[in-house]
Amino acid sequence: MNVQESTPPLQSEVVLPDVAATEAWAQRFAAGLKPGMLVLLKGELGAGKTTLVRAVLRALGVEGNIKSPTYPVLETYNVSSLYLYHFDFYRIKSHSELEDAGFRECFGGSGLCFVEWPEKAGEWLPAADVTLELRTTEGEGRKLTMTAGSLLGRQCLERISIA
Ligand SMILES: Nc1ncnc2c1ncn2[C@@H]1O[C@H](COP(=O)(O)OP(=O)(O)O)[C@@H](O)[C@H]1O
Ligand SMILES: [Mg+2]
Q1: Interaxial angle between packed helices 49-59 and 19-31, expressed in degrees from 0 to 180 and rounded to the nearest 10
Q2: pLDDT tens-digit profile of 14-52?
Q3: All domains of the chain, ordered by start, with CATH?
Q4: How do residues 84-128 score in pLDDT, each as one tens digit?
Q5: d(CA 13, CA 95)
Q6: In the chain, N or C: fewer CB atoms in 10 Å?
Q7: Tally of CA atoms within 13 A in the half-sphere of 52 that contains its CB
Q8: Which ligand 1 atom lies nearest to the CA of residue 70?
Q9: Is 0.85 surpassed by the pTM of this model?
């Protein structure tokens, strides 16, 4: 067997021309997510991080209004027995804020975590399974760069590339 062919790429890129494309991508991504995974979302304000997480949460079965967690920092959802944590660390200034809020217990368990602005948490966060970076393109769309940080992350991204 050719090892190179069987090993999924560590990093890949896709252009999402509109929100509908983000939603279609999110459907495929969500299908490969497993409990306990940590997904980081990087990119400037307005890059489309919340739009993407909202689409993933929807694909995972979240119903009703899905708000941006920018003000509360965390929005929690529960689908069947799975906890989904959507963080936005934009307003975070120090690690002690994260500790004091009790966020540590959301990570490393069976919950599925999405974190916008992970840069604000620096070393405080555990290693990510998948890092997604969004950038605006010359047109209306977004360029999405996907990076796997673990075997689970690789398997998840591999599913998308062959779907
Ligand atoms: N793939 C896309 N193509 C075009 N516009 C997009 C795309 N994804 C998101 N947007 C638009 O970008 C704007 C900002 O998105 P948002 O998800 O709030 O950004 P962020 O959370 O990164 O600050 C929204 O108006 C949204 O409709
Ligand atoms: Mg946002």
Answers
A1: 50
A2: 999 999 999 999 999 999 999 999 999 999 999 999 999
A3: 15-162 (3.40.50.300)
A4: 999 999 999 999 999 999 999 999 999 999 999 999 999 999 999
A5: 31
A6: N
A7: 29
A8: 21
A9: yes
Residue 121, amino acid: A
Mapped onto helix, strand or coil, the DSSP state of residue 40 is strand
Atom of ligand 1 nearest to the CA of 18: 3
Q: How far is CA 13 from the centre of its chain?
A: 15
Alpha carbons 32 and 95: distance in angstroms, whole number:
30
Q: Whose CA is nearest to atom 15 of ligand 1?
A: 48
Supply the pLDDT for residue 140.
94
pLDDT digits (tens, 9 = 90+) for 63-77: 999 999 999 999 999
Whether ligand 1 lies within 6 angstroms of the CB of 131 is answered as no
CA-to-CA distance for 157 and 58, rounded, in angstroms? 19
2 token code pair: 């050719």
The tokens describing 15, both together, are 């252009």
